[in-house]
């Protein structure tokens, strides 16, 4: 049982750090994208396409990079949790950008003229928009977290599913299925869903408290 | 007004998909035979090779292979999700035969397990007296923190064989820091062994194919012994007891097809890799069956 617990905790930590890392660059980038007010059509299309990138493809690319015969082999990152965190943060970057982009853009449209009409300066305008679009950004991060924790391809290819080290819930489920232990796989699957849902609810509640 | 556009669009989509469905619908009856197989047979390409030869003769069949571990293959057969299985796990096979889940055993082929490790061989496995001695050497040197051992840890035939050898030594490597349980297929375990410059137990076929592709440059075969039961890898075919009708008939035909023609198995890969990857059981049926029984009895 403690092994299952370990796996669950590892899943949450890896996906959590990956989400934090991804939002670190995704969210400023999104604000920049909206506020610079360029014709962002092309960027939008590219990012929305990248949202659906197959995880095994990204996993394979990262594997070829990190493998000891690859260009970044000297880092010795392959089959480590750090590699999984990096891979998953790259995976969810387009997702976080594209989900938060919509909410920020809508808020910017809505409040831009309002802010102008009440005589706010540029800095105050941006602050207003950031404040108003926060719930949407939080929702984007939750979506990113769910994608990271429910993802198999990268975890398997560059994590390696090593017991007690890089085994996370999805790779554990895949392994139990391969072993023919369908019951254990279902149990793990239910746990995965329950955790994702409760974390999402918790973050939603927390972000609502902060705004009011 | 907008509703009208949606309805028109819906009808258009429906009719297009109906046309596509109609155009791709098989005009002559095709018999699908679902076969679960161990990854080693599938990953080496042997099954695709045999299957292409088989469908040349039986044009109306389509063989669908599901490559999984031996444990999962047996579960699929028991649940009736596949009609035949090809596996290499005598202990488990015996259990499922007794449960009545599988029947009609045909020993189709055999190959060998080998110990794969880094070129410089810190554990000096290459001069081991037998496989048990080789594992003992790995254990001793690994305890000194010099090497790592990669275990499949996926309940596959190879993994169970590895566990059996550890049991014979009387040690339990689980939870040791040098014992890496990857829970993965043979190909990935070999790649991991190469990355970590570690040791692992592999079937000779998967090793040969990966080596020829240049995927595992840091490891080589350090120990193999063709005359030891423990290093003998026996592949059997079974029919799932729950499978009936034409699918069963063709599944049986397929198993007999492999069984009756030693050439298909023996010639596979020779041209490409320069060595035989699998050996047909013809002429050795008796001794291989004996070995199978010994392996099945010892769990």
UniProtKB/TrEMBL annotation, chain A:
GO biological process, one term: transmembrane transport
Keyword Transport: yes
Residues annotated as transmembrane: 12-33, 45-66, 78-101, 128-149, 185-206
Location in the cell: Cell membrane; Membrane
Keywords per UniProt: Membrane, Transmembrane, Transmembrane helix, Transport
Domain called ABC transmembrane type-1: residue spans: 8-203
Listed GO CC annotations: plasma membrane
Membrane topology designation: Multi-pass membrane protein
Domain of life: Archaea
SUPFAM superfamilies attached to this UniProt entry: MetI-like (SSF161098)
PROSITE patterns cross-referenced by the UniProt entry: ABC_TM1
Family the UniProt entry places it in: Belongs to the binding-protein-dependent transport system permease family.
Name of the protein described by the UniProt record: ABC transporter permease subunit
From TrEMBL, chain B:
Annotated source species: Ignisphaera aggregans
UniProt domain PBP: residue ranges: 36-261
Name of one Pfam family that matches: PBP_like_2
Protein name: Tungsten ABC transporter permease
Entry annotated with the keyword Transmembrane helix: yes
Gene3D superfamilies: Periplasmic binding protein-like II
Keyword Metal-binding: no
TM segment ranges: 6-25
Keywords attached to this entry: Membrane, Transmembrane, Transmembrane helix
């Amino acid at each position: 049982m403690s092994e299952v617990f370990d796996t669950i905790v590892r899943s949450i930590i890896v996906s959590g750090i990956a989400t934090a890392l991804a939002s670190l660059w995704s969210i400023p980038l999104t604000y920049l994208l909206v506020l610079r007010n360029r014709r962002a059509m092309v960027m939008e299309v590219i990012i929305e396409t990248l949202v659906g990138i197959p995880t095994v493809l990204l996993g394979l690319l990262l594997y070829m990079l990190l493998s000891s015969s690859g260009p970044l082999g000297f880092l010795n990152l392959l089959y480590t949790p750090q590699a999984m965190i990096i891979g998953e943060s790259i995976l969810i970057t387009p997702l976080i950008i594209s989900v938060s982009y919509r909410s920020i853009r809508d808020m910017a449209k809505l409040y831009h003229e309002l802010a102008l009409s009440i005589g706010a300066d540029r800095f105050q305008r941006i602050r207003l928009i950031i404040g108003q679009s926060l719930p949407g950004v939080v929702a984007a991060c939750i979506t990113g977290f769910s994608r990271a924790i429910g993802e198999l391809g990268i975890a398997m290819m560059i994590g390696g599913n090593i017991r007690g080290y890089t085994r996370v819930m999805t790779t554990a489920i895949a392994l139990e299925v391969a072993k023919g232990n369908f019951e254990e796989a279902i149990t793990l699957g239910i746990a995965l869903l329950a955790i994702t849902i409760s974390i999402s609810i918790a973050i939603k509640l927390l972000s609502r408290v902060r705004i009011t | 007004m907008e509703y009208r556009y949606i309805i028109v669009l819906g009808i258009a989509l429906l009719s297009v998909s109906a046309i596509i469905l109609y155009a791709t619908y098989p005009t002559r009856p095709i018999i699908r035979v679902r076969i679960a197989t161990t990854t080693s047979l599938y990953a080496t390409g042997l099954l695709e090779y045999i299957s292409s030869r088989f469908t040349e003769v039986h044009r109306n069949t389509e063989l669908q292979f599901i490559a999984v571990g031996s444990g999962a293959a047996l579960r699929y057969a028991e649940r009736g999700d596949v009609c035949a299985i090809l596996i290499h796990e005598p202990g488990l096979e015996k259990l499922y035969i007794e449960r009545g889940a599988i029947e009609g055993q045909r020993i189709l082929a055999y190959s060998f397990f080998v110990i794969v490790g880094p070129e410089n061989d810190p554990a000096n496995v290459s001069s081991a007296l037998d496989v048990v001695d080789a594992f003992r050497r790995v254990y001793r040197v690994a305890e000194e923190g010099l090497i790592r051992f990669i275990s499949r840890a996926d309940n596959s035939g190879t993994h169970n064989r590895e566990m059996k050898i550890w049991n014979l030594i009387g040690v339990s490597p689980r939870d040791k820091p040098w014992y890496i349980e990857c829970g993965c297929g043979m190909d990935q375990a070999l790649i991991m062994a190469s990355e970590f410059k570690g040791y692992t137990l592999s079937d000779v076929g998967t090793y040969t194919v990966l080596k020829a592709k240049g995927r595992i440059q840091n490891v080589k075969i350090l120990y193999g012994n063709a005359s030891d039961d423990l290093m003998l890898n026996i592949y059997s075919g079974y029919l799932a007891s729950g499978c009936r009708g034409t699918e069963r008939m063709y599944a049986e035909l397929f198993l007999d097809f492999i069984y009756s023609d030693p050439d298909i198995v023996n010639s596979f890969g020779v041209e490409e890799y320069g060595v035989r990857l699998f050996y047909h059981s013809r002429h050795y049926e008796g001794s291989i069956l004996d070995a199978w029984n010994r392996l099945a009895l010892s769990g």
